[in-house]
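User: Show me sequence and structure for the first protein, then do the same for the second.

Assistant: Starting with the first protein.
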Amino acid sequence: MPASPYAARLSTIPVERREVEAAGGATSYWVYGPEQAATTIIAVHGFRGEHHGLEPVVAFLPDVRVISPDLPGFGETPPLPGKEHDLGSYAGWLTEFARAVAPGAVILGHSFGSIVASAAVAGGLETPRLILINPIGAPALAGPKGVMTRLAVMYYALGARLPERIGTALLRNGLIVRVMSVTMAKTSDPVLRRFIHDQHDTYFSRFADRDVLHDAFVTSVSHDVRAFAPVIEVPTLLVAAQRDDITPIEDERRLAAMFPDAELVEIADVGHLIHYETPAEAAGAIRRFLRLPVSHRV
């Protein structure tokens, strides 16, 4: 396994795996940083990911308590019992999870997590501030990679309709995962590219079953943050990439204007993988937004 460029920093941060009941099922989550930290962030990962994906950002927030769950149906969290995994279910789950483990925490969502976090906050989840990294700020089918998104719709639909063993194998196909990874990575650093591809190879297929995956995919392409922005009154930070193929930066600028109180930070020369390619810049924006002192830890 390629070494993480962020391993040295991350190794100095304490981490503990825990479980809690939320929305009728068990949720696995990880607590990073000092237990008595002044600031707690609940971080929600993106589609097909799990908590490991946000660890590079955590590595640059050593004095912050970061609580990072696996979304229901992904990683080590089983599917929600008896429920369709639509946006209402995910937002309701996040609301219950946050109230159970850290009421009043700052809420952070990356990519698909930005939709879930925004829907939950708009629906009544109390938080002093909201942070969205690579927010989905426009319909996926209308983006610069709209053709690729339509192919993805066909891919996930085929995976759901084929016989279960064949469909699941298609959805976990390593070549398709690698094509996705290569498409999204913008860095030219070979070490960082190897790390990104290994992360996707290792964690991108840790979904519970094809039904959960299909539900989550349909949810991810059927919603975006625009529907919730006007009613989110808490201060909101958007950390957006100038080369994002999923939501162009022009749409992110329009999205920021829809919030009553929002700040947009743009990061150059990166796409939809801010959390892997430029986590230091993302963490710096978070520190400024939360008015945290600069960390001097190596």
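Switching to the second protein now.
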Amino acid sequence: MVFTVRGRTVLVTGAGRGMGRLYAERAVREGAVAVVLWDVDGQALEEVVAGLASEASTLHSYVVDVASVESIRSAASAVLGEVGVPDVLVNNAGIVRGKYFWEHDHDADIDLTLRINTGGPMHVTRAFLPAMMERGTPARILNVASASGTVSVPRMSVYAASKWAVIGWSDSLRLELVAAGHPIAVTTLIPSYIRTGMFEGARGPLLTPLMEPEYVVDRAWRGLLAGRARIQLPWTVQLAGTLRNLLPQPAWDVVAGRIFKVYSSMEHFTGRSDDSPVDGRKA
């Protein structure tokens, strides 16, 4: 049977703005019976809920800090008791820090990036997965990684590290669920730069323009429903990964640095130009 969200429960982290909001809108549009919105920014959640009012879907918003295991556990317990077991988890929340590694602050940059980008998806999934497995019905998990988790990018070392970890964990989890016989498909989204404001000032490498968030969400959503293991956007992401594995390191450095301009893509990074938070925090 084709998996759909109609009549099912969808949970989205980082749902207060950007792509998280788009995922929530898609769930409502396709008939989810309940859409659970998590974000650290309560005001942003209120605005999303007001804009998504629907007769077909019930909306449940929770102020959750995915950098905190305690916050995740508490909110997950509330969701399981008040809404039920999610059928779809979208681990979307994330932050980016764009500067040289030695300029990163221990707490506000290194630790926070790893706790949100890497620990967040793991702890959110761990909080719900036992109930999803026990129920035994088809389910979906989408983990948002990044093309920066497949190739090295100067001025983004900690962010790249956090996304490398997500890719390895996400695909390992997918294989574990298959081996254990659970009908829960795990999809890893690996996009290049997206026009959300989160990567303001970043320049797309050769043949890799900044993508519109609506396009990425559409491709990710369709891949999620189909249970695809990996979605790499655009096509040059897969090409770069292939070349990285085939070429000797010095040759790849020339290709990535001088031809594709991957190594200089963050030279003009500024982050959001306004004062709005990125998934509840300043970029």
